[in-house]
Write a structure and sequence with these properties.
Two copies of one chain form a homodimer. With 428 residues, chain A is α/β, with parallel strands linked by helices. Helices cover 37% and strands 27% of the residues of chain A. Chain A has three domains: 2-132 and 301-320, Rossmann fold, CATH 3.40.50; 137-297, 2-Layer Sandwich (Dihydrodipicolinate Reductase, domain 2); 343-423, Alpha-Beta Plaits (2-Layer Sandwich), CATH 3.30.70. In chain A, strands 7, 8, 9, 10, 11, 12, 13, 14, 15, 16 and 17 form an eleven-stranded mixed β-sheet that branches.
Chain lengths: 428, 428
């Protein structure tokens, strides 16, 4: 019999309680153990009692729960840094295994959590922290271990993917779709963490740390959100054969790690291009396995509960065999972070320019002076005086492009640099 | 130090040797062990020596390899039933862990292999047997364990997916594409096992056994190949919004298991519809996690080697911790197989009929008499005398459809029942 101490009985927590109850038979069969919720730390008692759990399970004092020697696994679903961090560290020190879905915490304090788990010989699993129900942490950490991972590209935020899918399909403006998503509960009242890319940044920090065996934290990730995207960009990108996605990308380039989150155009035939709505996917390129993609529901009560319960079952099997800590921290190296300036990318650039002869030549001249080679130009008239100009570059260093844009900004013929979007997912 | 005894140094075997050598540093770091090829059973010595292995590794007598007490893991990459089966059983009896990519063997003798592994307390892993480099066995067996799996739908044969993709894109005939695939090495000289669906059937038997915790063998799987598919079917299906794929499907329906392999039309927006060329994918529907898909290279030297090395590393970690047999046979139940006759499907039916008034009414009448309800009809003229008729049914029991087709076959106005293809992947 494995006893769980559950911290937090919100959406995911109650999903875990429900799943352990509804699938009790297969879960105990497959894990070789009965798994029971012994204690739930929750300030709102009705959340616990409404799930059919008894009063004796209710607990409002963390110390009481941690002092219970019958509890084998602490499942932390409070979220945020504190008090989650302190609770987890304390649980580990008392020899309890820990399962969490807390990406914020791992992306910031991963090292401390892992080393504490190792010191105290307990398991620390967090499959639900990235990609919700999609198994991606374990496969990357264990079954792809024979590969040098070259890159990981994720669509790991359901809110922004829902917004971009809707903008793409219906030509709607960002703000309009965001409001709709908030009404449907797909976006939070304060959507900053999602739409500005911070949620995706935490997840790619976690994936990068595992893929490249070197700790990557939130601060190491370059982040751009989707708020500047316009239906015009989506339309012009479409004409060029691309769809737009908020990508979380981690690459190892000559021994350094590059990690970033930004909107990007990817070719329509790329496997990630078909990942729509609230679905998530993680695309992995390994030197032996080639291109892989894991696709599924990246959030939601029951998909996330599926991942949490999967981790609980794995620990239950470990306890059954009298062994724990199978795969602990795998950050064996300390690799440098490559700044975004040094990255080579292709760019889509949308400009609003004076519609008069010689303008294209002048603009092309500025790019040429900065070694920015142009692959494609689309010219669109916009009213009488102005033209919209869309340019796609060949691969150029980010810094060269920035320099060229700075010069363009100062030119009287350039009314506006409307948007700059990177192109990804093409074979170089 | 973990020592490997490798049986067979063909394509995959030499891939494993190469991968263990090229990625030695990360592999030993991640698995906590040095992994060494100690012996290779191979009748063609140059295959072994060409890889840079020394003469002392060469071995032509299985007993010599099995008697070597320093060998911890036997990696069986000979393929086929015998002598692979005997070698594996003998290795297990001597306390050696086994990794294999041998789907033929597992689909037929799975139970014997698992129970022998269990009796002798050794690990038996076979991630490479299904989906090549794609991690699917372990995730299904372990991390999705909290779910009742409702269905597994795989595109698990690269040869047929290459052929169907090419037929779809270029309107080519089956035989022509097959010849081309043979020249490119994507299809074998004797392509029967691939194009008739037996390879996919073995794989879905394995996946079904794991998903539903009940042993499913090759004989339990209903199988139809792709040889009867015509570019006409692909064209008409396309008009109706479908693409054709060879699907391997396993479902649990009211406590019984239904497993089958056949060509099927799936909606163009289904995630499996974008799986093209030699890529494979496994689509899983679980009650908690919802829809998941694993996508990647289902065959080939290095992708398959990636999966084999992943299994070796997992066993190395188990040995390191002094524990084995984490997840053994999971066929706890003995569920009945549901015959294909009882399955409810939608069908696409292509007929060649006399082009004269009243023919459609007569044909529709036959379907009506057998409770086969028609959803869509496309009529295409074909020469002067004949018309092609394409009908799509609503959900009907397979047996009712068969009865209606038998009556149609006997009618003088029906010149030919050109093809019958199931529709899959739609929400009911």
């Amino acid at each position: 019999m494995i006893n769980i101490g559950l911290l937090g009985c919100g959406t995911v927590g109650s999903g875990v309680v429900k799943l352990l109850a509804s699938n009790r038979a297969v879960i105990s069969m497959r894990s070789g153990q009965e798994i029971t919720i012994k204690r739930v730390l929750e300030t709102a008692p009705h959340k616990v009692l409404d799930l059919g759990l008894g009063e004796e399970v209710l607990c409002t004092d963390i110390n009481e729960l941690l002092a219970d020697e019958d509890i084998h696994i602490v499942v932390e679903l409070i979220g945020g840094i504190e008090p989650a961090r302190t609770y987890i560290l304390e649980a580990m020190k008392r020899g309890k295994h820990v399962v969490t879905a807390n990406k914020d915490l791992i992306a910031v304090c991963g090292q401390e959590l892992f080393s504490t788990a190792e010191t105290h010989g307990v398991d620390f699993y967090f499959e639900a922290a990235v990609g919700g129900g999609i198994p991606v942490i374990h496969p990357l950490k264990q079954y792809l271990g024979g590969n040098h991972i070259k890159e990981v590209i994720g669509i790991v935020n359901g809110t922004t993917n829902y917004i971009l899918t809707k903008m793409s399909r219906e030509g709607m403006e960002f703000n309009q779709v965001l409001r709709e998503a908030q009404e449907l509960g797909y976006a939070e009242a304060d959507p900053t963490s999602d739409v500005e890319g911070y949620d995706a940044a935490r997840k790619i920090a976690i994936l990068a740390s595992i893929a490249f065996n070197s700790r990557v934290t939130l601060d190491d990730v370059y982040v751009e959100g989707i708020t500047r995207l316009s239906p015009l960009d989506i339309e012009y990108g479409g004409e060029l054969g691309y769809v737009v996605k908020l990508l979380a990308i981690a690459q190892e380039i000559k021994g350094r790690i590059q990690a970033r989150v930004h909107p990007a155009f990817i070719p329509k035939h790329h496997p990630l291009a078909a990942v729509n709505g609230v679905y998530n996917a993680v695309f992995i390129n390994g030197d032996a396995v080639g291109e892989l993609m894991f696709y599924g529901r990246g959030a939601g009560q029951m998909p996330t509960a599926s991942a949490v319960v999967g981790d609980i079952m794995e620990i239950a099997r470990n306890i059954h065999r009298g062994t724990v800590g199978s795969v602990s921290c795998t950050c064996f190296y300390s690799k440098d972070i490559m700044p975004i300036d040094e990255l080579q990318s292709k760019f889509y650039i949308r400009l609003l320019v004076k519609d008069r002869p010689g303008v294209l030549a002048a603009i092309a001249g500025v790019f040429g002076n900065h070694q920015v080679s142009i692959a494609t130009v689309l010219q669109k008239t916009s009213g009488e005086e102005y033209a919209r100009l869309v340019l796609v570059t060949h691969y150029v260093p980010e810094s060269d492009l920035r320099d060229a844009l700075t010069v363009l900004e100062g030119m009287s013929i350039v009314s506006e640099i409307s948007n700059v979007i990177r192109l990804e997912g093409e074979t170089r």
